[in-house]
């Protein structure tokens, strides 16, 4: 019995020492790694070549470069802002070619990018609030910090991977359609959003439903991308989507940011798992 108690005491001492080392050294090592990774993510959002003292660098992205695409154009991104859009649309029914671009006094804020950047900044703030001299006293304290950081990183990632679902009336009244010159025809709607690492442009061609139409009118709900046949009501008019044209392009630095989010979340989870291992010891609970 004495031997068994001695072994238990020895094991307890080893566990206590390992846990102290984890709290005092390894936690701070992981925090430094996370800060380095998220600093790189933050740099992606400010764009290469830009500075904090001046405007973000402009980047041009070509959309619909294939020979058979109905929509072609160039979108100019400046940080989290779409500063210019130059779009050509070929109307399939009449073979008519329409050209429209942003008015010179107009820009469109991409809220998804802005929100993702803000969440990264908040995660960085949480990490830097505990410098190397700070002594974590309990595993629960570390878990609480990791949960808070992971929440911000998950929100940042979700803002890029989960575009907002909008109804067609919301798209029609969002203000984007009023930013073009010449003014968009009343039978066109435009939407721009981020999906993962891609900048997406959708053009909806519409036709009005006649008051005596025999079609069963069912207003479409919210969606990231509406399909032909979707119906909605705008003012006193009932409309139906006849054609949908979607073009997109990859934004390389958004791809980098998503990778950094994934690696950071994995590091946080690994640290949480190590902390949780100690709770499995019945005789020693560092929480």
Concise structural overview:
With 287 residues, this protein is of the alpha+beta class.
Q: Which descriptors would you attach to this protein?
A:
single chain; 287 residues; alpha+beta; six-stranded antiparallel sheet; four-stranded antiparallel sheet; 5 helices; elongated; disordered N terminus; disordered C terminus
Q: Note the main sheet.
A: 6 strands, antiparallel
How many domains, as an integer? Answer: 1
What Rg is obtained from the alpha carbons, in whole angstroms?
27 Å
Q: Briefly note the structural class of the backbone.
A: alpha+beta
Q: State the distance separating the first and last CA atoms.
A: 28 Å
Low-confidence parts: 1-7, 282-287
Roughly what percent helix? 40-55%
| Overall pLDDT score | 85
Q: Which overall shape is indicated by the principal axes computed on the Cα atoms?
A: elongated
Count up the helices. Answer: 5
**What is the H/E string?**
HEEEEEHHHEEEEEH
Strand residue content: 25-35%
The total of beta strands comes to 10
Walk me through this protein's architecture.
Belongs to the rogdi family. Pfam families: Rogdi_lz (PF10259). This is Protein rogdi homolog. It comes from Otolemur garnettii (Small-eared galago). One of its GO terms (biological process) is hemopoiesis. The protein is an alpha+beta fold and about 290 residues long. It has one domain. It has five helices and ten strands. It has helices spanning about 1-45, 110-130, 140-160, 170, 250-275; strands at about 60-65, 70-80, 80-90, 95-100, 110, 180, 190-195, 200-210, 230-235, 235-250. Strands 1, 2, 3, 4, 5 and 6 form a six-stranded antiparallel beta sheet that branches. A four-stranded antiparallel beta sheet has the order 7-8-10-9. A hairpin with a 2-residue loop joins strand 7 (about 190-195) and strand 8. Helix 1 packs across helix 2, helix 1 packs antiparallel against helix 5 and helix 3 (about 140-160) runs antiparallel to helix 5 (about 250-275). The longest helix is centred in the N-terminal third of the chain and has 45 residues, at about 1-45. It is elongated, with a radius of gyration of 27 Å. The chain starts with a helix and ends in a 10-residue tail after the last helix. Residues about 1-5 and about 280-285 have low confidence and may be disordered.
